[in-house]
Predict the 3D structure of the following.
Amino acid sequence: MSAEAHDHAHDHAHDHDHEHHHKDTFITKYIFSIDHKMISKQYLITGIIMGIIGVGMSMLFRMQLAWPEESFKIFNFLLGDKFAPNGVMTNDIYLALVTIHGTIMVFFVLTAALSGTFSNLLIPLQIGARDMASGFLNMVSYWLFFTSSCIMVSSLFVESGPASAGWTIYPPLSALPQAIGGSGTGMTLWLVSMAVFIASSLLGSLNYVVTVINLRTKGMSMTRLPLTVWAFFITAVIGIVSFPVLLSAALLLIMDRSFGTSFFLSDIYIAGEVLHYQGGSPVLFEHLFWFLGHPEVYIVILPAMGLVSEIMATNSRKPIFGYRAMIMSILAIAFLSTIVWGHHMFMSGMNPFLGSVFTFTTLLIAIPSAVKAFNWITTLWKGNLQMNPAMLYSIGFVSTFITGGLTGIILGDSTLDINVHDTYFVVAHFHLVMGISALYGMFAGIYHWYPKMFGRMLNKNLGFVHFWVTTVCAYGVFFPMHFIGLAGLPRRYYTNTNFPLFDDLQNVNVLMTTFALVGGAFQLVFLYNFFVSIFYGKRAVQNPWRSTTLEWTAPIKHIHGNWEGEIPHVHRWPYDYSKPGHEEDFVPQNVPMMPGEEELHH
Amino acid sequence: MTSLLVIIVLVLLAVALWQLTKIFDLTQVGAQSNDSQVADDKDNNLQGYLMFAFLGFIYILTIYSLLKWGHLVLHTPASAHGSLVDNLMNITWVLIFTVQTITQALLHYFAFKYRGRKEQKALYFADNNRLEFIWSVIPAIVLAGLILYGLYAWTNIMFVEDDEDTVVVEIYAQQFKWTARYAGDDDVLGKANVRYIDGVNSLGVDMGDKYAQDDKVVTELHLPKGKKVHFKIRSQDVLHSAYMPHFRAQMNCVPGMVTEFAFEPIYTTQEMRDMTFMQEKVANINAIRAKKSTELVAKGEPALDPYTFDYLLLCNKICGSSHYNMQMKIVVDTPAEYKKWLASKPTIVEEVKASAAADAPADAPAKPADTSKMATAVAAK
């Protein structure tokens, strides 16, 4: 049932007779499926569940920040007597919540769910392949992701509490159970979960790369690929390059924790005794961590950029502006992303000369990012914008990407980083530029490809409500946050009440929390829309957005192999919207060039 | 009380949601019933206007934030290099606000202006080399300027010449407190390692080192105005970060290595307290604290102390459960005051001797040597 079998058989008649997808039991169809469309749905739904946990946690600790050490019944209900006696959140669980929120959102939602869902759904459909290069590996990749999610969630229930050394798990804090409770069993589970996660991510990425290189349909040259596929392809490459480094960091940390090695530890006196560690360096861990950690933010944002490019072109009824420049900037970002990690470490104690080098490379990366932003804005210019919820989220993406990206100029400059490093300014910056933006990209993708996934439409009015409340609240939370950061407020403080200096920031915290709670609550609108529409949504037509790419030439009903009959061949690039000389304002990629028709783009 | 509030908020949210859906539904009335769930001209029109309104929201939020919270941002720097940092920061801000204002305006205005209409046809505009060249080169030039300024400042701040006349101070971090050690008259810190930690010698100073003889260990950091202070930073357990926001200074504390930072304080604590902006800030904070105190007293809890400004050293790298309360007061003195203060402090050698003398009669068991500890630590692992 593999994709190659169909391609090489050249026996398309067989595709018709449905012989080969007989006897799909419940288990092979919904659970251990090797069909990329089903796997993509599995990724999405697992990701949504993880997202609910991650966002829920942020609402809890935002409440603690706004009303420090006040009693809330919900704390006691959710966290239990140990972590919230009388409804007052303890400092230990506060750090645990912050840590797990970061881990879940970065890895489980924005890496696995975003890239996993849409790479799986769109790569085969948009390049004209029957399935991924290896359906089996794809299934294994999902189930490893599921396993790692379960391990991560189970770590919430261990007695000493889940990992609480921050999502960056810098040793020695993460290595020594004496230093913080969460560094016991909780951290062990965290590391095991991440190791499994990395295996999942690598299997997935290898599959995406092989599929894009080998299984493109006839006529689908690399410069006719939709930008989504380009983004997923390069994302997978970055993942393959950088995730193994995190795996090595995690393995070395496991050795330090359990087998007494000293890779990251040296000269430690804690709880009244000197530990035996000698000669290791925590800075080494920081290097290894950020060698993944920085590319990771591009692993998160590139797929969102790809989705947004595609959705914007479709809904503007215009070609994406500067298709080749967009590809070049994806490549430039991917390359630069692997040599900027040191900007997270300006204050780590590494040689300041290195700081100069990383400032240089970091500010360089602003150039391709700026090119992309300008190209999106130009794509809107003189378009005929169809304001579907996916389009709103795409415009919202560009807005938050600019707002959040600009403050990167401050953080990437080592001199300015001295005073804003690890303050709320950083939190505001990365939430806007990668957190919120990537979430918008994900929402845009869900609203846009929902008809392809479930054969039904999402309710657009609920979508509009969801978008506007979310977008106002996102700015409401993270815009004021820059100011408290510039006031010098460090992040990861359980309460600021021990510093009278920060008393005047309290009302800002209350305001941000209010926006966060409202914004969080309105995600219920999305959840309602999502789950109800699966069963009761309006039935979709085959190409509801009148789009040019190949996935919309496939039938609504999901079948193994995607297309009945022959795989469509490609005759043009994916952005022939409103091309002069055509009746319709879109020309699908599988439509041959008319006699005398010219390519109008470069 | 809180649960009531929560319920009220939830009810209000539900009402707001219902109203919003209703509004969007109403915009559909009259149109030939379109339930395709694909945006039609009515949607395009309304959403286009909302996009334009959202531009207003961004601008108003920006202006409101600047007016309302602008004063919260750290003000006059108290170190010599601080103005260099703040200057670069301000230049960057001008750039950021300019770009932000223009790009958001274009984005949202285009979203409004070109909102979809049945009869409208989009322009087929796929690329333009000149435009793309322009907006690659302009950021490149602007960023080159920022990079050069940034690197110039960075080099000035971070590299301390060996022959510079500085006061050498060690900052020592542990869960969850700060200690400082002064190098004394020889201006060289004695050797130290966690393996020498013993009783009052909590920093692990090597008592045999000749440079350690005049070292002084204190729990409140005093700095002389107008003299460059060279900090050597250590940690005994986990990562910490020595953050002195008023001095625009920060450096991580890494177990197993000595990190460095240097700056010259230019205002004494008293001078800083007397500045107008600081007096306004402190008055504001005290008003907030007074209000909170009345609430606390009403609940039968003790009132808050009024606040007076002091420079602070904060921990700025997650270091454990009490990370949020790891601080040390910094006092910037005039050189004369500083000298007097330092002279009044005993050296570490004197402290160790005094402690030994006090312990001797009681014959308190001395802490076992480090080697045996190491053995137990290995065994425990």
User: Anything to note?
Assistant: Chain B touches chain A through 139 residues (CB under 8 Å). The mean pLDDT of chain B is 89. The radius of gyration of chain B is 30 Å.
